[in-house]
Amino acid sequence: MSLNRIRLANFRNHAASELSGTAKFNLLVGENGAGKTNVLEAISLFAPGRGLRRAALADMAAHTGAAGFAVSAELAQGGSAEVVHLGTGTSAERPNRRAARVNGADTSALGLGEWLGCFWLTPAMDRIFTDSAGVRRRFLDRMVLALNPAHAAHAARYERALRERNQLLAAPAEPDPQWLTAIETQMAGSGAAVASGRAALIAALDSALAEMPASPFARPVLALNPGGPAGEAALLAALTDARRRDRAAQRSLVGPHRDELAVTMAAKNQPAADCSTGEQKAMLIAITLAHCEIAAGGDGAPSRPRVLLLDEVAAHLDPLRRAALFERLAATDAQIWLTGTEPAPFADLPGDTARWLVSGGEVERIGVC
Fold first, then answer.
1. Gap between the Cα atoms of 87 and 93, Å rounded
2. Which of 2, 4, 89, 266 is the most exposed place for a label (fewest CB within 10 A)?
3. Which helix (H) or strand (E) holds 246?
4. pLDDT value of residue 369
5. Residues 124, 129, 130, 134, CA torsion sign
6. Which CATH class is domain 1-116+304-369?
């Protein structure tokens, strides 16, 4: 599998860039601010959601007077001659709505996700273990969404019902019990699906991490501390029982919106938030690789093509861990994209790595490493 002939038009600082002749490993080298991460962000838009920066669509379009942006690519299916054409972007008429196409036919971002799995690790994610519980929930939900596209609809329905319930709880007048019951029924149904999806992902990740071969990377242990009981009926009962307390707090205090992702370093039995920066980075890399691996499936069915986007991943790794990372990446069947400010840290990449120089929003292929 490979993405090839990737085109960026009016995207961030790329007026018109094309990357052709891709390989399994693809390295983008350039100074800070050259536009390397912008290329990865463009590729990440072939997945559901808001891309690896979670940016507003208006911020993705280049500020050159032209409205909208476009990103397209060719997806080659293994050794087959068949090529799937993927495209996404915005227009002058609808700058805040992203359109998507597969082989020229309109689809949705979820539709693009059915063809390609995108997984990424960026420097901004280094704060996940020390940031708020909400940041970790978003991280968790993005991982669930990559494997289960229906998760987005469940989460959206739950959030809408949660907002409605909170508004009723905060109103001066006593809420109508029947109206509360109707909203809580919606919350219980969609909330149970959200919680189930999260629990299933964590179980799969934890199992994959436990089975990983010995390596210099710290192994994390994952757990979900639930914000409410499991199951639709139990969650509905908990919401009903909590009405008086929640009205006093003017917000809902039970439900999956209060779930917490707990990560522990196995070797030290220490919470990830209390580990060193290097240990946190190693655990985050391990989680990202395990997530990409479980997306391949294990039931013998053809796996969905996958792309792994690693932004500045080698910057804070010592030579031993860099070599171990590249060895692990070589063992996957995902296409790998990496960025760096200089080529030296990537000396251990395979010899057939495709390499590009990025400068001022322009991309030049400079052969192989």
1. 18
2. 266
3. helix 243-249
4. 46
5. positive
6. alpha beta
